[in-house]
Specification:
In chain A, 70% of the residues lie in helices and 0% in strands. By secondary structure, chain A is an all-alpha fold. The longest helix of chain A has 23 residues. The termini of chain A are far apart. At the A-B interface, helix 6, helix 7, helix 9 and helix 10 of A face helix 6, helix 7, helix 9 and helix 10 of B. Chain A binds a DNA duplex (30 and 30 nucleotides) through helix 1 and helix 3.
Chain lengths: 208, 208
DNA sequence: CGAATAACATACAGTCTGCATGTATATTGA
DNA sequence: TCAATATACATGCAGACTGTATGTTATTCG
């Protein structure tokens, strides 16, 4: 008969420790900033020592990257849950936009993903993470809209990046207390402005 | 008759020391990142000691803020020099956009102003700096365009912030090696899409 | 059941930041 | 003009943090 706490497989130990480290780091990185959070504090919250941290992660940045990756995935899942492929291209785009703005209201997410992430990991690394998760649905939505002729044909990568940047800034502004309606209205105007035919009447659907 | 090196007024000494500290910090902050640049290195490059730094600036962040402020002003001046008020609203907007993208190619500027700045000082502080310098001309250009009926009437603050965010991301992407033409084309499409009347066909060809 | 290896814990070296204290130079006012 | 005072620095110190090297315990495997 094995004791309850002993006899844990190595893989289980690794997985559990990594998960606890990431969870503790996530909590602290969202409450405070990356720079203000020290590894002693993280390992104390996780119930391990710094030795464990540096055994599982190359350095503090690597742990931060793991947290960012997880959080970006969580945001992407919220978006995909809100914009099923059954919707029309433009409607899916709008639903996804709103879902993104809602998802980014989770405390500390904007700083983690939009401020500390790019500064600590660099824009290139953040682009890679975004392309694996969040931006994918956005880019696919844009491609679909272009194919359905409801959007001008433009360089997809650039369009994705610039719209994503606008969404990011909107999330930051809303968190800072700006009017959600104002930013939402401008975002929609930017998207609708990309229609190949003049926007004309926004309410009655014109492209069909 | 005063000696050459002695007999310097206190105000001159302060001004000179501050300027040297800011210049040395600017050089290092643009070559490396804020986090990778230590105050011992900065004061060594400036030819003073850390005592002088902490006499003139509250902390490392305050020195960084001074560098950011100076650099943001330099960018704004380049833009205003390139987009005189004699131009038509839309043309001034385009000229300013191109000037911004050019100005941001100065080595290290994107990281300083677009990555480290927001992360270290916060988005609110960066917004304040931007509104004092760069964004002012953009917002005024947008207001002028709206007044001349060549742009839909939208919340000005939000529109300014979101377009600025798109410009920022374009500058980052271009520095990372992306196609300037692609990003420029999308930026112009976003701007032109905001026309209240159908795309207006300002030129027989689209934008190029 | 050893031997090798993985998963930690502990200890240490180097560096950094911010402050406190000391000193020289400039300014002020009687 | 000359002390008194304030300003502009320089120096030294305390605390904290990061990364690594080394030691110890728990698995895995032949």
């Amino acid at each position: 008969m094995q004791e309850e706490s002993t006899r844990r497989s190595n893989r289980d130990r690794t997985e559990a420790t990594r998960a606890e480290l990431i969870a503790a780091a996530r909590k602290l990185f969202t409450e405070k900033s990356y720079a203000e959070t020290g590894t002693p504090e993280i390992v104390a919250a996780a119930g391990v020592t710094r030795g464990a941290l540096y055994h599982h992660f190359a350095d503090k940045q690597a742990l931060f990257a793991a947290v960012v990756e997880q959080e970006a995935q969580a945001v992407a899942e919220e978006i995909e849950r809100a914009s099923p492929p059954s919707l029309l291209a433009r409607d899916a785009l709008i639903a996804g936009s709103d879902a993104y703005l809602v998802a980014m209201r989770a405390p500390g997410r904007t700083r983690l993903l939009l401020l500390d992430g790019p500064a600590v990991l660099g824009r290139a690394a953040m682009d890679a993470i975004d392309n694996r998760h969040g931006n994918r649905s956005l880019r696919e939505g844009l491609v679909a809209a272009m194919r359905s002729q409801s959007m001008a044909r433009l360089p997809v990568e650039a369009l994705t990046a610039l719209l994503a940047a606008a969404f990011d800034r909107a999330a930051l502004a809303i968190e800072a207390g700006a009017s959600t309606e104002d930013y939402r209205a401008v975002l929609m105007a930017l998207i609708d402005g990309l229609s190949p035919t003049p926007p004309q009447a926004p309410r009655p659907a014109r492209t069909r």
